[in-house]
C-alpha cells in the first residue's frame, strides 16, 4: 500500500532484522530481477521525448568514438610511443587499458545508461553534498572546449590555404612572411649535395675550423651553403619554412604571455567557422548529433587508412616504421615513467572524467549492451593511435630521406607535428594538394566530433535540471557556445597563442584525473559496489553462462577494480599530472614569453573544476537549511534515485525508518517525485494478510521504477 512518509509505521510495527530469512531475501531478489523487464518497458514508454534519444545504438557508439578518438591519437600517441620504447610501449599501454581504461569507460556508460540523466544529477542523488563532483566533470569538458576549437580553426586555415594554392609556398622561403636569414628551404637542400667536393670552398670568418664533424653535411641558408657544424657553433637560427609559415603567417604570436596588440584574423575566421558548425550540429539535439556522427566520425578512419597506405609506399617509409615500432626497447617496460606516460595518454585520449561519456550514455536504451560498446571504444581508440602513428612515422621517414637526416631529427610532438613536420612532408609528395587537404580534413573531423561532445555535456546537464529548457535546448546550445566563444576570443589575438599553450598544459590534466578518481570512489564506497552490480543485473539480466559471468559484463573483476585498482591508478595519475617544470619554458632572448603569471593563471584554471565540489556542497547545505530539511539527508541516497525502491526493499527496519527524513522532491520539481514509502508487511498477522499486502509491495516497486523519479527522467 502506498502511503506518504509522514504515515510510515513505526519501527516496532515492522519486522525486526532478526526476523528476516534467507527465503524472504531470495523472494525480494527474485521479484527485482523478474520485474526489471517490466520496469524498463514502463520507463521507455514514459521517457520524456523532449529530452531526446539516439536513433539507434550505432549513433551512440559513433558519437562516443567521436569524443574518445581525437587529435591526440595523431600527434601525441606516436611520439609518446617513439620516446618510450617503440612497440614495447604497447605492453604498458594495453595493460593500463585493461586495468584503468576499460573499467572507467564501462562505469561511465553504466551510470549514464541506468540513471538516464547527466553526471551532476546522478551524484546529487547519491548524496546531495557530492553534486559538485558531477559539475567538476562538466567544467573540465567546458574548459577543454574553449581551447580545443582553436586547433580545429587552424586546420580550417590550412584547408583554405590549400585552396588558395599555398601548398607550394609553405615549403619555400621567398614569401613575405619568411625571415630569409633563418629560413631553411628543404627543397633547395640538394643544391649543397656536391658543395665543397674539392675542399677549396671558402669558410665564413666565424667558422671554427677545428670543430669535429666538419665537411659532412651542408645546409642551404639564405642563398649560400654552410657547414652544419659551423652554423651550430655560431648559434645561427635555422627554422624550417613550414615552421615559419605556421608561426609567422597562421599564428603570428607576440613576444610574451601578457602582450596583446591585434586580432589574428585568419585564426579568428577559422574559429568562427568551427563554432558555427558546432552550433548547427547541436541545434537539433542529440538526434541530429547522432546523424552527423555517420560523417564526422567515420571519415577520419577512411582518411587515415588512405594516408597509411600512401605513407608506407613512400621512399624512406621503412626507416620511419622501424623507428616507430621495429626497434623495441624492452628496458623501458620496467621503468615507472613509461607506465606513467601510458596511463596519461590513455586517460586523456579516452575522455574519461569529462562527463561526456555519462551524458551520451544517458540517451541509450536501458538494456543496451554498454560493455560491448566500451570494448569497441577502447579498441577503436587504440587502432586509430596505432594506424595513425604508422601513417605519421612512414611519412616522417620519407621526409628524413629527402632531407638527408635521421628520423629522430624530424620528429616533433603536439601541434608542431601536425602543423610543421607533416605539412613539410606532404608538400614534397606527388599530388601534395590532395594529400595535404585530406590530412587537414581528417584533423578537422577528429576535432569537431570531440568538440561537439564537450559542448553538449553542459547543455544536457542544464536541461536535465531545468526541465522547461528542454524544448528550447537549441537556445541553450547557442548561448553556451556564445559564452565559450567569448572566453576563447583571447586565443585568436597575437598574444593568445601563449594562452592556448597555458590551457593545453593546465585545463584538463589534474582536474580530469581528480574527476574520474572521485567518480569511481563514490560509486564504490558511497553508492555501494553491490548496488552498482545490482543495477547491472537489472539492466542486463542474469549471466547466460559461466564464461560471460567471469569475463563479460557481469565479471566480478569490475567490482574489485572499482574498489581498489582504478582508485589507486587514478591517484597515481593525479600525482603524475601535477608534476611539471617551473617556469614553464625559458628563453634567454624572450624572458617575458612565459612569466610567473603563466603558471599562476594556469593553476587557477586547473583548480577551478575542483573548486566546484565545495561550492556546490555549500549550496546544498544552504538549500537544505532554508527549506527546513534534516541536514543528515545531505549524506544519504535520495529517494529520486532510480534504484532507491530496490535498495529500500533490502534495508533493515531501523534503516528504513531513517529514510523518512529525505526530501520528497528535488529543488527543480514542483511536486513530490521519486520513491513513495510503504509500510512493511506485518509478519505477525495471518498469512492471508501477508499475501494480500505483498502484491501492494510488489506494485510499489514497479510504481517507483516506472514513476517519474524526477522530471529529468
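-> sequence recovered:
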Amino acid at each position: 500500500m502506498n502511503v506518504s512518509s509522514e504515515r510510515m509505521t513505526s519501527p516496532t510495527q515492522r519486522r525486526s532484522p532478526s526476523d528476516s530469512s534467507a527465503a524472504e531475501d531470495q523472494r525480494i531478489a527474485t521479484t527485482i530481477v523478474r520485474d526489471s523487464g517490466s520496469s524498463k518497458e514502463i520507463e521507455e514508454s514514459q521517457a520524456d521525448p523532449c529530452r531526446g534519444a539516439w536513433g539507434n545504438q550505432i549513433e551512440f557508439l559513433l558519437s562516443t568514438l567521436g569524443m574518445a578518438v581525437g587529435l591526440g591519437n595523431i600527434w601525441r600517441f606516436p611520439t609518446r610511443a617513439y620516446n618510450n620504447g617503440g612497440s614495447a610501449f604497447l605492453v604498458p599501454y594495453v595493460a593500463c587499458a585493461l586495468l584503468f581504461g576499460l573499467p572507467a569507460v564501462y562505469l561511465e556508460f553504466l551510470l549514464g545508461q541506468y540513471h538516464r540523466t547527466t553526471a551532476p544529477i546522478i551524484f546529487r542523488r547519491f548524496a546531495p553534498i557530492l553534486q559538485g563532483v558531477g559539475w567538476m566533470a562538466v567544467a573540465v569538458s567546458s574548459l577543454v572546449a574553449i581551447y580545443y576549437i582553436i586547433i580545429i580553426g587552424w586546420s580550417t586555415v590550412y584547408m583554405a590555404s590549400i585552396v588558395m594554392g599555398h601548398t607550394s609556398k609553405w615549403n619555400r622561403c621567398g614569401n613575405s612572411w619568411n625571415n630569409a636569414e633563418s629560413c631553411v628551404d628543404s627543397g633547395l637542400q640538394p643544391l649543397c649535395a656536391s658543395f665543397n667536393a674539392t675542399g677549396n670552398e671558402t669558410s665564413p670568418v666565424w667558422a671554427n675550423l677545428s670543430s669535429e664533424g666538419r665537411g659532412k653535411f651542408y645546409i642551404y641558408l639564405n642563398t649560400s651553403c654552410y657547414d652544419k657544424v659551423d652554423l651550430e657553433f655560431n648559434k645561427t637560427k635555422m627554422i624550417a619554412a613550414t615552421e615559419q609559415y605556421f608561426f609567422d603567417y597562421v599564428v603570428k604570436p607576440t613576444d610574451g604571455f601578457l602582450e596583446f596588440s591585434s586580432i589574428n584574423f585568419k585564426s579568428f575566421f577559422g574559429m568562427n567557422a568551427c563554432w558555427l558548425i558546432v552550433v548547427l550540429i547541436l541545434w537539433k539535439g542529440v538526434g541530429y548529433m547522432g546523424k552527423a556522427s555517420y560523417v564526422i566520425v567515420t571519415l577520419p578512419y577512411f582518411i587515415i587508412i588512405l594516408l597509411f597506405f600512401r605513407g608506407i609506399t613512400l621512399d624512406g617509409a621503412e626507416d620511419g616504421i622501424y623507428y616507430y615500432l621495429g626497434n623495441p626497447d624492452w628496458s623501458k617496460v620496467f621503468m615507472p615513467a613509461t607506465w606513467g606516460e601510458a596511463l596519461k595518454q590513455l586517460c586523456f585520449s579516452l575522455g574519461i572524467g569529462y562527463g561526456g561519456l555519462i551524458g551520451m550514455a544517458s540517451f541509450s536504451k536501458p538494456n543496451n549492451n554498454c560493455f560491448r560498446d566500451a570494448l569497441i571504444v577502447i579498441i577503436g581508440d587504440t587502432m586509430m593511435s596505432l594506424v595513425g602513428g604508422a601513417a605519421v612515422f612512414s611519412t616522417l621517414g620519407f621526409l628524413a630521406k629527402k632531407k638527408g637526416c635521421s628520423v629522430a631529427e624530424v620528429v616533433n610532438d603536439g601541434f608542431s607535428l601536425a602543423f610543421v613536420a607533416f605539412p613539410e612532408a606532404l608538400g614534397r609528395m606527388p599530388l601534395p594538394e590532395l594529400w595535404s587537404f585530406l590530412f587537414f580534413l581528417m584533423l578537422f573531423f577528429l576535432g569537431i566530433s570531440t568538440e561537439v561532445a564537450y559542448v553538449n555535456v553542459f547543455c544536457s546537464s542544464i536541461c536535465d535540471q531545468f526541465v522547461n529548457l528542454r524544448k528550447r535546448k537549441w537556445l541553450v546550445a547557442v548561448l553556451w557556445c556564445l559564452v565559450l566563444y567569448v572566453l576563447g576570443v583571447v586565443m585568436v589575438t597575437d598574444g593568445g597563442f601563449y594562452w592556448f599553450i597555458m590551457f593545453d598544459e593546465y585545463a584538463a590534466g589534474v582536474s580530469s584525473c581528480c574527476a574520474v578518481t572521485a567518480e569511481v570512489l563514490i560509486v564504490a564506497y558511497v553508492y555501494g559496489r553491490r548496488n552498482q552490480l545490482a543495477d547491472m543485473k537489472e539492466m542486463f539480466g542474469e549471466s547466460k553462462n559461466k564464461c560471460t559471468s567471469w569475463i563479460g559484463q557481469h565479471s566480478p573483476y569490475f567490482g574489485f577494480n572499482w574498489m581498489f585498482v582504478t582508485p589507486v591508478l587514478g591517484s597515481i595519475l593525479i600525482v603524475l599530472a601535477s608534476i611539471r617544470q617551473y617556469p614553464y619554458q625559458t628563453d634567454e632572448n624572450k624572458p617575458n614569453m612565459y612569466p610567473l603569471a603563466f603558471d599562476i593563471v594556469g593553476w587557477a584554471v586547473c583548480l577551478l573544476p575542483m573548486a566546484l565540489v565545495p561550492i556546490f556542497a555549500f549550496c546544498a547545505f544552504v538549500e537544505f537549511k532554508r527549506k527546513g530539511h534534516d541536514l543528515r539527508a545531505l549524506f544519504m541516497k535520495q529517494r529520486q534515485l532510480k534504484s532507491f525502491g530496490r535498495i529500500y526493499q533490502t534495508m533493515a527496519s531501523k534503516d528504513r525508518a531513517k529514510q523518512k527524513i529525505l526530501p520528497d522532491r528535488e529543488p527543480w520539481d514542483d511536486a513530490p517525485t521519486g520513491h513513495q514509502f510503504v509500510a512493511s508487511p506485518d509478519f505477525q498477522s495471518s498469512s492471508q494478510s501477508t499475501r494480500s499486502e505483498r502484491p501492494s509491495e510488489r506494485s510499489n516497486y514497479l510504481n517507483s521504477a516506472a514513476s517519474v523519479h524526477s522530471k529529468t527522467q
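Residues 370-403 form the longest helix (34 residues).
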